[in-house]
Write a structure and sequence with these properties.
Elements: E1 3-8, E2 19-21, H1 25-34, E3 36-43, E4 51-54, H2 58-61, E5 66-71, E6 77-90, E7 93-100, H3 102-106, E8 110-112, E9 115-120, E10 141-149, E11 161-167, E12 169-170, E13 175-176, E14 181-183, E15 186-188, E16 191-196, H4 204-216, E17 223-230, H5 231-237, E18 239-244, E19 252-257, E20 264-269, E21 292-297, E22 303-306, E23 312-313, E24 316-317, E25 322-328, E26 334-342, E27 345-347, E28 353-354, E29 360-361, H6 366-375, H7 414-422, H8 441-446, E30 452-459, H9 461-474, E31 476-482, E32 492-497, E33 504-506, H10 510-522, E34 524-527
Parallel strand pairs: 2-34
Antiparallel strand pairs: 1-3, 1-5, 4-7, 5-6, 6-7, 8-33, 9-31, 9-32, 10-30, 11-16, 11-17, 12-13, 14-15, 16-19, 17-29, 18-19, 20-25, 21-22, 21-30, 23-24, 25-26, 26-27, 26-28, 32-34
Helix pairs in contact: 4-6, 7-9
């Protein structure tokens, strides 16, 4: 007659094993004693058949939701159970129907083992380390920040481009071009005459004087093309200055593009978004695709989605991602953006983006001379780019890849039920999503938009909070074999294993071990302190 029974209240673990404790038998017993309503130690042969007759009043029994008792059949082991029903028999004689709490009774009798983990809280939350798709609806995305490169128009320096005349006659030296030279590795049989575009003076006077001089020498047919190139490309190659005075067409100057056998590459380190302006997530998976990513556009319809976590340097996720701007001289310029280390490819040309062409211009000969004769050499400096007769330039168009909506079926786990409440995940295409451009290079230039736009996109704050709370509650999707993380967080750990997996093995009767396994298959939250059960506002940091 030495078995004990403790009648307890306010024990907050539930029969569905949604919330459990990682308490040893002695810790669980201490909890029951601290919440005891009544206890007795004159029982014998208490069995786990689901019914106990107790000598407590009905008033005591109906206050209780939990019991602890010893069973001599198990070497005085303590069992813990939920009270299902209380049946009044007589004064201080009640029948209690109960269900054994398999988790709390046997928690310290089994050892976790490696198994297939569907999801759990992680022990390393480095940004970019966890990218398994979560199948959550992220809603519509918004721009967090913006940057552009190369800069074509700035307040500090308006001289950001050159007018270029490709020709075979130099009116200052009175020489014709003979032979070939190399520009960016390609052979050309022409000179490139460069006329800077200054603020308040778009370069027209010098161009007019140059063309007039060439036409006077009956060499207008030596002019092959007229177009625009950006200053960053011209300056990277280098120029030679020419200037004349006393000509019939007045003073003018130009620069001659030097020969160059090297490729022109500009390197740009863009900003990687690891914080948001109006919300600070607790979980770093909020900083990876599709919740947080970048779109790079050329502003004429060509764009690509880039994931910050897919930029690598030396086989590690890049903290300072890099893109190259590769440039060469051609009509309107040939420029493209190439991501460096993207998907661990040093130069990922397959996911590069072309820049819109700079405008191609037009000119005339006899009519031009007549016009100059009538109007002189002073042209109003307010003339727009269109006055030069800018022609239509065609930007390279890539294949259009529409965004695809991906539906995910209903899940049966605890986390899956919550995920379905949030909504199904609408996912952008995982393939390069370069869409077709259009013939808007000229208006692009006129509006000073001929640059690469870096749009840093992220989910709206409303959805960020929803998704962050979901991660806080249920951890991340893992989908691989690893050890269950039972104690790796400060206040609670969520674990969900595969449908046919076993969380561990030990000295546990088969029927109880199966209950424990089924709880983990459905998904279970393991709390490290009974007082905190259900308090998800706590900082559940990695320990």
């Amino acid at each position: 007659m030495n078995s004990q029974i403790i009648l307890c209240r306010n024990i907050n673990v539930d029969k569905q094993y949604t919330n459990v404790l990682n308490y040893s038998e002695s810790q669980m017993l201490a909890l029951c004693r601290a919440n005891a309503i009544a206890s007795a130690d004159n029982y014998s042969f208490l069995r786990t058949t689901g019914t106990i007759f107790v000598g407590f009043t009905y008033a005591q029994c109906i206050q209780a939701n939990y019991i602890a008792f010893q069973n001599p059949d198990y070497s005085n082991k303590w069992f813990f159970a939920w009270i299902d029903d209380v049946i009044y028999k007589s004064d201080k004689n009640c029948e209690i129907k109960f269900t054994i709490d398999a988790w709390s009774t046997w928690f310290d009798k089994w050892i976790p083992k490696k198994c297939f983990i569907n999801r759990q809280h992680v022990t390393d939350d480095t940004v970019g380390l966890h990218t398994v798709p979560e199948n959550l609806d992220i809603g519509d995305v918004i721009e967090e920040s913006f940057e552009s490169f190369p800069i074509i128009d700035s307040e500090e320096d308006r001289n950001q481009f050159y007018y270029v005349i490709e020709g075979t006659y130099n009116p200052i030296t009175d020489k014709d071009y003979v032979g070939v030279t190399k520009i960016n590795g390609s052979l050309t049989g022409s000179w490139y005459f460069l006329f800077p575009a200054y603020e308040g003076n778009v370069g027209l006077p010098d161009i007019n004087n140059f063309l007039g001089n060439v036409n006077e020498k009956n060499k207008i047919e030596s002019i092959k093309n007229m177009f625009i190139l950006p200053k960053f490309l011209v300056d990277a190659i280098g120029t030679t200055h020419y200037q004349t005075s006393g000509q019939i067409f007045g003073n003018y100057e130009f620069y001659l593009l030097n020969s160059s056998s090297r490729a022109i590459t500009l390197t740009y380190n863009f900003n990687k978004i690891n914080s948001f302006s109006d919300y600070t997530p607790k979980n770093n998976k909020c900083f990876v695709y599709p919740i947080n990513y970048m779109i790079i556009s050329n502003n004429i319809g060509n764009y690509n989605i880039y994931k910050y976590e897919d930029f690598y340097i030396n086989n590690e996720i890049a903290e300072n991602p890099v893109v190259d701007i590769e440039c060469s001289v051609s009509i309107g310029g040939s420029i493209r953006l190439v991501p460096r280390g993207y998907k661990n490819i040093d130069k990922n040309y397959n996911e590069s983006i072309p820049l819109a062409k700079f405008p191609t211009c037009s000119w005339s000969s006899d009519a031009f001379t007549n016009w100059l004769t009538q109007n002189g050499v002073n042209i109003a400096t307010s003339v727009l780019i269109a006055a030069t007769g800018i022609g239509l330039s065609v930007a390279t168009a890539g294949a259009a890849t529409p965004l695809a909506a991906v539906g995910v079926g209903a899940l049966i786990s605890t986390a899956g039920v919550a995920a379905n409440t949030i909504g199904q995940f609408r996912e952008a295409s995982m393939l390069p999503s370069i869409s077709g451009g259009n013939n808007s290079g000229d208006v692009n230039f006129a509006s000073r938009s001929t640059f690469f736009s870096f749009h840093h996109m992220r989910a709206k704050t409303e959805y960020l909070k929803i998704i962050d709370d979901y991660f806080t509650r249920f951890g991340y999707k893992i989908c691989k074999l690893e050890n269950p993380n039972i104690n790796g967080r400060r206040y609670w750990n969520y674990i969900e294993i595969g449908g046919s997996e076993e969380i561990g093995t030990g000295e546990v009767p088969t029927k109880y071990m199966e209950i424990i396994n089924n709880a983990c298959r459905k998904g279970v939250t393991i709390w490290h302190n009974h007082a905190n059960i259900g308090n998800y506002n706590l900082d559940n940091a990695i320990i």
